[in-house]
Amino acid sequence: MPSASCDMLLEDIEDIVSQEDSKPQDRHFVRRDVVPKARKRNTQKYLQEEDSPPSDSTIPGIQKIWIRTWGCSHNNSDGEYMAGQLAAYGYKITENASDADLWLLNSCTVKNPAEDHFRNSIKKAQEENKKIVLAGCVPQAQPRQDYLKGLSIIGVQQIDRVVEVVEETIKGHSVRLLGQKKDNGKRLGGARLDLPKIRKNPLIEIISINTGCLNACTYCKTKHARGNLASYLIDELVDRAKQSFQEGVCEIWLTSEDTGAYGRDIGTNLPTLLWKLVEVIPEGAMLRLGMTNPPYILEHLEEMAKILNHPRVYAFLHIPVQSASDSVLMEMKREYCVADFKRVVDFLKEKVPGITIATDIICGFPGETDQDFQETVKLVEEYKFPSLFINQFYPRPGTPAAKIEQVPAQVKKQRTKDLSRVFHSYSPYDHKIGERQQVLVTEESFDSKFYVAHNRFYEQVLVPKNPAFMGKMVEVDIYESGKHFMKGRPVSDARVYTPSISKPLAKGEVSGLTKDFRNGLGNHVSPGSHTPAASQPGSASSGMVLRRPRLQQDCAPRTAVGLALLALLLAFFVKVYN
Fold it and tell me: How many CA atoms lie within 13 A of 533 on its CB side?
């Protein structure tokens, strides 16, 4: 639309400026009088940003970590290894959950209640704004469950990478490592056995001899997580045992989902391993064998009886029967019948006098009739097992047994109560009052009133809380018995024998580091030292234990690339100037 300003012809753009307008030099001098307006700072928001720096600026290796483990001794061993690696890196392992920056929750998938506790702990951690890393069999078996979404997961065979997962989680990222360990396509038993660890009890070493099993029990969810059988080599297991004894351990537990199946995937067997292990057990120290299913122990009964009679091996064996009904065992796909179980127990009782046989029973498995259950009751009444684990059946998601018509909940509960009543009707240790026994003291009782020891048959004996007894072999007179224990009075003139070949580590102390980590530390660690200063949790040098090899690995490729680029540039300049 035409205006008055458009009526005149402009020769130059500068003609737009009239005489009344300020000149450029005038505008320049005016700037000196301009006072910038101070903008008020949002102090509260600024302080919040100071407290919560960007994730990339978070320094890993200085936070506090709380570790909670549910389930079997295999899971407990995994938890010890993860704690050891994190402490070696510089993280502080704390027993105070509320004080921790991150919760590492190591789960069990055997029964519904264990998973419920796991789920509730995740919810609580989220309510308290804790960083979370999940481990164990639950997330390994079902990582896509809704309540696991967005959370970091470390798989059961990836525990040697727990530091990486924790580091990324602290930065605000979600990481999931669920793969299998393989060597030339062959599945391995899991992470290396020579990793740093913090033993829950410095006197007891838990060694996983294999992972997974050869069975396909219809009720078992653990199979989905641990998979098929994969055994560690005998030399690796013997080396781990030797290292443990050098660190003051006086008792070793061998564990796995089925110890009886050990070695079938690598051309060896359980008795061969056990004979190698007893050669390195110091006098007075003891070995406890873990759970074995009936089918695989049947092949080695003669050799197993000889080993269980060895003075440095507890005369104890955990053989789960689950049911005394062949029809129920068939539905469970247990691959043995009740006669097989009785044959194993009868043979061992004859060849290993006084042996303790522990067993498991499931009450209310789908299809179990009253008659089936009564067969199980008769078995307990006949053998009077001193250690009996009674479990009400819980259908686990994704298992074949969960799809079968279920026994009513009230019936399952009643059968569990009835079998528990039978178990508590007899006293397995009354006849031992007055005996004199050698016992190995390894821990404190739950009520903190006694020390807990075990005799030759891995029966629990409570002794007075004398600090001189801990980690020692003590001679006692049995003067009282209960359902699950005996009480022993130390013999006044008896010698207290020390089985450990060196002083035990302090509680919470990191066990020996690997050769790779030692090489990374140079001269800071002496070859014979089992408690290097660099392995102390929270120390500045401890952070170098895992960082240094990692930096060396990162720098090598970068150096190679840099040298290659330099060579190309030199070749280019030579060509140009020629």
Answer: 8
State the maximum Cα–Cα separation within the chain, in Å, rounded to a whole number: 128
Domain check: are 239 and 336 in the same one?
yes
CA distances from 516 to 196, 233, 513 (A): 11, 20, 8
Bridging pattern class, strands 131-136 and 102-107: parallel
Q: What is the CATH number of the domain that holds 443?
A: 2.40.50.140
> Are residues 139 and 252 located together in one domain of the fold?
no
User: How far apart are the C-alpha atoms of 152 and 162, rounded to whole Å?
Assistant: 10
Element (H or E) spanning 415, and its range? helix 409-423
Outline where 7-159 has alpha helix (H): 24-30, 43-51, 73-89, 112-127, 137-141
Report the alpha-carbon distance of residue 104 to residue 162 in Å, rounded: 10
Q: Write down which residue in 397, 426, 455 finishes a domain.
A: 426
Rounded to an integer, what distance in angstroms lies between the CA atom of residue 445 and that of residue 464?
11
Which of the 8 DSSP states describes residue 95? S
Q: Is the dihedral of CA 147, 153, 157, 163 positive or negative?
A: negative
Domain that holds residue 402: 186-426
Whether the CB-CB separation of 230 and 189 falls below 8 Å is answered with yes
Question: 3-class DSSP state for residue 423?
Answer: helix
Residues 6+ apart with CB under 8 A from 177: 153, 154, 155, 158, 161, 164, 165
Same domain, 344 and 360: yes
Assess if residue 347 is contained within a domain: yes
Q: What is the pTM assigned to this prediction?
A: 0.79
From the CB of residue 332, how many other CB atoms can be counted at a distance below 10 Å? 23
Whether 131 contacts 170, CB under 8 Å: yes
Tell which residue, 237, 239, 245, 207, has the closest CA to residue 498.
245
Q: Which two tokens stand for residue 80?
A: 């010890």
Burial class (CB in 10 A: 0-12, 13-18, 19+), 558: exposed
Given this model, what pLDDT does residue 110 score? 86
**CATH of residue 85:** 3.40.50.12160
Over its C-alpha atoms, the chain yields an Rg (Å, rounded) of 33
Instruction: Determine the average pLDDT of the residues in 330-335.
Output: 96
Q: Which of 257, 265, 258, 261 shows the shortest CA–CA distance to 230?
A: 265
Q: Which two tokens stand for residue 498?
A: 């020390």
Distance CA 114, CA 117 (A): 5
Distance CA(375)–CA(330), nearest Å, equals 15
Structure tokens at 346: 């009868």
Rounded to an integer, what distance in angstroms lies between the CA atom of residue 133 and that of residue 154?
A: 7
Say how many Å lie between the first and final Cα of the chain, rounded.
Answer: 69
Give the count of beta carbons closer than 10 Å to the beta carbon of residue 320: 19
User: End of a domain among 443, 461, 490?
Assistant: 490
Poorest-confidence range of 54-63, 183-192, 511-520? 511-520
Dump pLDDT digits (tens) for 337-376: 999 999 999 999 999 999 999 999 999 999 999 999 999 9
Average pLDDT in the 68-94 region? 94
CA distance 385 to 449: 27
Cβ-based neighbour number of residue 331 at 10 Å? 20
